[in-house]
Amino acid sequence: MPAITFIDSKGTARTVDAELGSTVMETAIRHNVPEIIAECGGACACATCHVYVDEAFIALTGKAQAMEEDMLDFAFDVKPNSRLSCQIKVTAALDGLKVSTPSRQG
Q1: pLDDT score recorded for residue 33
Q2: What is the CATH number of the domain that holds 96?
Q3: What is the number of structural domains in the chain?
Q4: Do the domain assignments include residue 105?
Q5: Does residue 21 fall inside a structural domain?
Q6: Is residue 106 part of a domain?
Q7: 81 falls within a domain
Q8: 38 near 25, Cβ under 8 Å?
Q9: Which residues, other chains included, contact 91 with Cβ-Cβ below 8 Å and sequence gap of 6+?
Q10: Within 10 Å of residue 14's Cβ, how many Cβ atoms?
Q11: Signed CA dihedral, 58, 93, 76, 41: sign only
C-alpha cells in the first residue's frame, strides 16, 4: 500500500496507507484527515478537497483536467501546485506522496 502524508495548515503531518485505485480524497476521508471536507463525495463538483501537491510529485499526479480547473476557481488560495484530491488516483508510483491543505476549503 502506498503511503501518503497529509500536512495540515498548522504543519501537523499524518502519514497513512492508501489503497491502490482509490483517490487521495477517499484516503483522507477513510483516515479522518482534518481539513479535507469533500462535500461532493468525489464528484469534482466542489472545491472542498483542495490540496497542494509536493513539488516532487507534480509530474506523477498529472495535470488538472478542464473540469477540475473550473472547480479550482472556487478554491481558497490556489497555487500552481493546487489539485483537487478527488481527482488524484492512488498508484504505486505515488508511494511517499506529500500533500498539504490550505487553512480553509472553498
Answers
A1: 97
A2: 3.10.20.30
A3: 1
A4: no
A5: yes
A6: no
A7: yes
A8: yes
A9: 2, 20, 60
A10: 14
A11: positive
